Automatic annotation (TrEMBL):
Protein name as annotated: Phage ABA sandwich domain-containing protein
One Pfam family linked to the record: Phage_ABA_S
Transmembrane feature ranges: none
InterPro entries: Bacillus_phage_prot-like (IPR028985), Phage_ABA_S (IPR041270)
Biological classification of the source: Bacteria, Bacillati, Bacillota, Bacilli, Bacillales
Residue ranges constituting the Phage ABA sandwich domain according to the UniProt record: 20-109
The organism's place on the tree of life at top rank: Bacteria
Amino acid sequence: MKRKEVVEKWCTLRASEHDAWVASAVMGAEVIGGNVEKIPEGFRPVPRYTASISEAWKVVEKVREDWILQLLDGAGWWSVVLLSDCEDRSDIDPVNLPTASEAICLAALIAKLTKE
């Protein structure tokens, strides 16, 4: 996918669908029915990655395995910049959204899914 396609899809989804997309594409979870993820002990609701900064921080930790992440507080916006730590890929341009957790999640999806 291209960045534009990821952003366009993001804009068509509800918050719960954002969370399910992050769970499967970024966190590697098996999501069932859009709102439940399979775990070794059984099943649990998909974490609210886009609504809870503590859940979004789990996404940060996952992204930091492959990227250098900068989180910036702007006037009414949060901005996430992902910097490449290797020569064969480019940095991810800033992602700006009203909440830090949303910006973190969209930036993570762009990093994981784009092939530009």
